[in-house]
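Quick start: what a row looks like.
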Amino acid sequence: MIETKEQLAAAAGRIAALREEVGKVIVGQQTVVDQLLWCLVAGGHALLEGIPGLGKTMLVRTVADAVDLKFSRIQFTPDLMPSDITGTTLIDFGAQGAAKQRFQPGPIFGNLVLADEINRATPKTQSALLEAMQEGTVTAGGETHKLPRPFFVLATQNPIEQEGTYPLPEAQLDRFLLKIGVDYPTRGDLKEIVRRTTSLEQPRASTVLSGSELLELQSAAKELLIAEDMLDAAVQLVMMTHPNEADSPEEIKRYARFGAGPRALQALVSVAKVKALASGRLHVSWADLRDVALPVLRHRIVLGYEAQALGMDTDAMTLAIVRDLEAKR
């Protein structure tokens, strides 16, 4: 519980130390790192989208090292079964032939789980993972097993190659707190990546935060305040993603089929609180809401066929909403 300025500064310092430690291994990609840490402290799950080879696996492994979390990786393939993720019930035979059931936990029983190329598995397998994300439990053999805390799923997908994939439906995408776009590194970052990865000594993050301290940060972020006018602004931002709203931008009215739901508002406020905490403030500002809008909304706005044909994306829709709201302030 944050009661003094010193406690607030200490919480912000922990997030800054975590960001700095991850930066010792991950070159550039500061926006991606920041958004991933927002998601971590907010207690949600993230979907990373980017072409192969951009360091998504290294990023999540580095975060796991820096926060002293158990890292687990699941490579999604079309033949992956739900029990390969959640675990299965085995039968052990004792010395006298007595049979006893035993649950063998799957890789989902980790603190930081990388679901690599999640859109390559069948919908049945995808739903098993997403159910565990939502409920925080796994049911097998009639028994319910709790997942460890903290529990965080980082899923990746390739936006280019779609052959042989099973795109996540909108209802399942909505379960991810943030969708983070991973861009190609700059020339300077490429040079630094080569220097670090082709030398004898490979950089590795040191532990700067424990799992219990991360849970404390999650609780502290929830305690932050959001004024009534900021909550109204968050509501308006989400409502303006709907094409039937009178004050929605023309881009939304023309190109969007469906807007964001209640989970988007919850995510917007939760992540904005984390950003405020990282900045050493006890209240949410408009700048916090504005800065977290893109990763919160980009997977929650459904575009029509015309928008897809013209190459429009949801980022452009979100930026149009933010511009309209800032013009009215």
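That is the whole record. The longest helix spans residues 5-23. Residues 1-222 form a domain with the Rossmann fold fold (CATH 3.40.50.300).
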